[in-house]
Amino acid sequence: MSLHPLEYVPAVADESAFLQDLSKALPVVLGRMFQHQRTLLDSFDGRLYRDGWILEESRQGRHREWILRSLPRGLEVHRMEIAGTVRFASQLPPGPLQSRLLPLLEGRALLPCIRLLVKTQSLKIGDDQSQGVVFAEWETFVWDAPAQDPRPALPGRLVLRPGAGGEEAILALANQLREGFGLSPAGQSLWIHAISYLDTQPGHYSTKLDFHFQAEDRAEVVFRHISGHLLDILETNIPGVLADTDEEFLHDVRVAVRRTRVVLARMEGILAPESSDRFQKEFAWLQAVSGPVRDWDVYRQQLPRYHAILPVEYQNWLEPLTAYLVQERQRARRSLLHALRSERCQRILREWRALLEAPLAFNGETNDQPIARLSSGWIWQQYRKAR
To answer: Who contacts 102 (Cβ-Cβ below 8 Å, separation ≥6)?
Structure first.
C-alpha cells in the first residue's frame, strides 16, 4: 500500500522544545524553512464541507495551488495549479477537480472562509544505516485575522512523508514518536480543528424551512417564528446581492420575500388588517424591484446550452445576444441597488423586525387560535377548490 502523509500533534505547548528534544534523540537534519498562506474555500452555504470535502488554496509568492481533501482526515484527492482569478468551478479547466466541484457548487462562488499563515520547517529524520530516512515538515500556524481576534492559537503539526526508508521507516518513526515523545495522531484535518473556533460553521446556512410545531401552538407564535426565520435569510443575503458575489444571493432573497408574502396571505387575521395590508404591499414592491435582474440571470444561465446546440463555426453568432443580456442586467442591477439601499427598503426591514419582536403587536382575530385549527381550515379550502 502507499501511505498518505501522517500528521502528529505534540502534547506540549513549547514547540521549539519539542524540536530540540527530537534532535537530541534522533539524527535530524534541518532543511529549508519557508512561509506560505493556506486558505479554506467554500460556498456561502458551505456546500463542500457539508458534503464531506475541504478545498484548500496554498499560496507561496505567486504560486497558487488548489487542493481538494476528503474529510475527516483531510487526505488529498486532487491538486491543481491555479492561474488568474477563479471564483467559480466553471472557470476551472476541464479535469477531475472541475468534475468534482461543479455538481456540488453549481452557480455558487468560492469564498475564503479561513486564512492561516503557515511557517514550515523541513526535516530529514533518521539515517541510511539504521531504520532509513523519513522526510518531515514541522508546521506552525497563525490566524490571518485582526490582532484583536479572540481565537486561540492552533497547535503545530509534524507531518511525516516516506523517504529513502520507505513505509517501514515512517511506521517505525511514527511508533517511536507516540511512545517516546508524547505525540498523538492528529486524527482529523487541520481545517476541522480551525473551523471549531468559528462563530458559525460552514453549512449552517440553509433556506429550507424545517420547523416542528405542535398542534396546540398558538398561531401567533408560529407566525413569528416562520416570519423571523425568513427575515433572517433576507437580511443575510442582501450583502451578497449588493456585492454581486454570485446569482444565488438574489435568488435566496426573492425566495424569502415570496415565502413571507405567502405567510401573510395564508395566516390572514393574525396581524391587524392595516399592518397586514401595508406589509403585503411593501414586500410586493421588494419582489417587483428584484425581478428583472433575476430574469436576466436566468436568461444568461441558458447560454452554455445554446452554445452546445450550435456547431462550433456558428457559436460566435451568440456574442451579440450575450452582450445584450449583460448590458440589460447591468441596467436592471443599478435599479436594484438603488432600491436595496433606499430608505424605503431599510424601513421595511427595520419595522418588520420590530413588529415581529414587539410583545403586543399581534392583535388580529386569529392570533390566539391553535395552529392546527387555522391550518386545517386553509387546507380544507384548498381541497374544495381542487375537487
So the answer is: 89, 90
* Average pLDDT along the chain, 387 residues, taken 10 residues at a time: 73 71 84 94 95 96 94 91 93 94 94 94 77 82 79 86 70 81 83 87 83 88 93 96 96 97 88 90 97 95 90 91 95 97 97 88 70 83 79
Place of cell 421588494: 286
d(CA 155, CA 14): 10
Q: Kindly give the residue spans of alpha helices, DSSP state H, lying in the chain.
A: 15-25, 47-50, 96-105, 166-180, 190-195, 219-243, 247-266, 273-301, 303-309, 319-340, 343-357, 371-386
**Angle made by CA atoms 154, 155, 160, in degrees to the nearest 5:** 125
Neighbours of 13 (CB within 10 A): 10
CA–CA separation, 326 and 332 (whole Å):
10
Identify which of 210, 245, 239, 247 has the alpha carbon closest to the alpha carbon of residue 225.
210
Pairing of strands 134-143, 111-125: antiparallel
Grid cell in block for residue 224: 413569528
pTM of the model: 0.84
Backbone angles phi, psi at 86, to 5 degrees: -125, 115
> Position of cell 410586493?
284
Assess contact for 152 and 172: CB atoms under 8 A: no
Contact partners, residue 159, CB within 8 Å, separation at least 6:
5, 6, 7, 136, 137, 138, 139
C-alpha span between 223 and 356 (Å, rounded): 9
Cα 242 from Cα 284, distance rounded (Å): 20
Place of cell 481565537: 151
- Give CA–CA dist 8/15, Å, rounded: 12
User: What is the rounded CA–CA span in Å between residue 267 and residue 255?
Assistant: 18
d(CA 267, CA 210): 18
> Cell for 277?
395590508
Cβ 248 vs Cβ 255: under 8 Å: no
Q: How many angstroms from the chain centroid is the CA of residue 6? A: 27
* SS3 (DSSP) at 117: strand
Which amino acid, one-letter code, is at 308? A
Query: Which are the contacts of 31, defined by CB distance < 8 A and separation ≥ 6?
Result: 121, 122, 123, 124
* Residues 6, 136: Cα–Cα separation, whole Å: 9
Report the helix count and the strand count for the chain, using DSSP H and E. 12, 9
Grid-cell match 436576466, residue found: 296
